[in-house]
Amino acid sequence: MRKLILGLAVTLDGYIEGPNGEYDWCFTDQDYGLNEFFARIDAIFIGRKSYEIAQQYADSNNGEIVPGMPPVTEYVFSKTLESVKEGTVLISDNSIAEARRIKEQPGKDIWLYGGASLTDALMKEGLVDELWMSVHPILLGDGKQLFHKQDSRTKLTLLESKTYETGLISIRYSIDKK
Q1: Can you list the pairs that 39-42 forms with residues at least 24 positions away whose Cβ atoms lie under 8 Å?
Q2: Which of 2, 18, 134, 154 could form a disulfide with 143 if both were Cys (CB 3.0 to 4.6 A apart)?
Q3: What is the mean pLDDT of residues 74-90?
Q4: How many structural domains comprise the chain?
C-alpha cells in the first residue's frame, strides 16, 4: 500500500502560515530535501484553499505549484469547487473512502500537501503514514496552527532528521498505527 506523507514547512511554534495567510518566512534558498522527496511520490492530495493558492503561484511560475516538482496526479478534495484544471482529479464526495481507495492503488507514495481541514480529517481516520516537517527557525506568534485538537495521543517514530546551516531542521516521523 502507498504511504500518505504529510510534508510541510512549519515554524518552531507550530504555524503553517502567518495571521494573514503569509508564508514569506519559508526558506527557498536551497533544496532542503525536496528533490529526494519528489522521487518518492507520484500523487498529491490537496484541499481547496491550498489548491487555489497553489494555482495562483503556478500561474506565474511556469505552471509549477512547487519549483522542480515532477508531474504528479493531483487530487483536489473539495465540496465547493465545481471544476479543476485539466488532468486534476476533483474529489467532492466520500473523500475518506476515496483517499483509502487511492492509497490502495499501485504507485509511489502520496504527498499530503495541505489544507488544514483535509489534514485533520485524514489524520483522524488514521490515513496519514508519515510526517515530514521542515521546521523553520522562527516564532510567528500567530497564524494557522498545523494540528487541531485531537481526541487522543499519536505516537511517532523518528525516521530521519537533518539540520541545515540556515537553522532549518528537517524531521521525518512514521505514525505508529494502533
Answers
A1: 40/5, 40/108, 40/109, 41/5, 41/72, 41/108, 41/109, 41/110, 41/111, 42/72, 42/73, 42/107, 42/108, 42/109, 42/110
A2: 18
A3: 91
A4: 1
